[in-house]
Amino acid sequence: MVITLEQIIIFILILSRCTGMVIFAPVFSAKEINFVIRVALIIWVSGLLIFIVPLPSVIPTGSMMILVTLLIEFAIGAAIGFTADLLISGVEFAGGIMDTQAGLSVAAVLDPSSGINAAIFQQFLRKVVVLLFIILDGHHMVLSAIVNSFYLLPVASPVNMPEGALFLVSLGTDLFKLGVILSAPIILVIFIVDFSFGILNRVAEQINVFQLGFQIKPSIALIVFLAITPGLVSVISGLMESVMENLAHLMGALST
Predict the structure, then answer these.
(1) Is the dihedral angle over the CA atoms 236, 164, 30, 114 positive or is it negative?
(2) Which of 59, 62, 73, 230 is deepest in the core (most CB within 10 A)?
(3) Residue 34: what pLDDT?
(4) pTM of the predicted model as reported, rounded to 2 decimal places
């Protein structure tokens, strides 16, 4: 079997798109997964895809053209991974709001899985949403999206990057909306507690309500969080269905 230069170029382009997906997609981008395993996964998936994806009508030639095409393919894979990771980022954002409202943000420690400082609620919600993502075959969903992308956006084909970028920016509103919705119960309860402390401070000014809040608000927030956890799991499971819709819309936006 003779391997031609065109086949090598196509394999590298497929490899570039898969690399962008693995770097940004949930589960695949986890720091717990060894770097060698991720590289092996990228090469293995790319080796399988080269036999099933449609071949490009025009193969890029010239070092500059190949470099630009490589960057475009990487951007497509990164967009797919980022869109799939949006749900987890939104849930993490909700956990960060809960920690801030409960006064637990000062107890933030390094989370090895994400590489950022996170407090109790944020770390717990991240573990829950990643577990649900795996249970509901979210990783298979991402792999299916990367395979289908080669049929909708063949290798080295023209891509509508401005429309794709606008769609990704519009998803930012969903991230903030998701964070506020999931953290709304704790925001409301803590607001009532702060309002009560304000009234208490007006009635008995000698009471240090600021110090008292650091003792009471975390306990109340934990009780509320335990009460709404079953509902949070149901909401997050329902939101998993929107991930595939966002990926389909992304493919439509990138298509010219």
Answers:
(1) negative
(2) 73
(3) 82
(4) 0.83
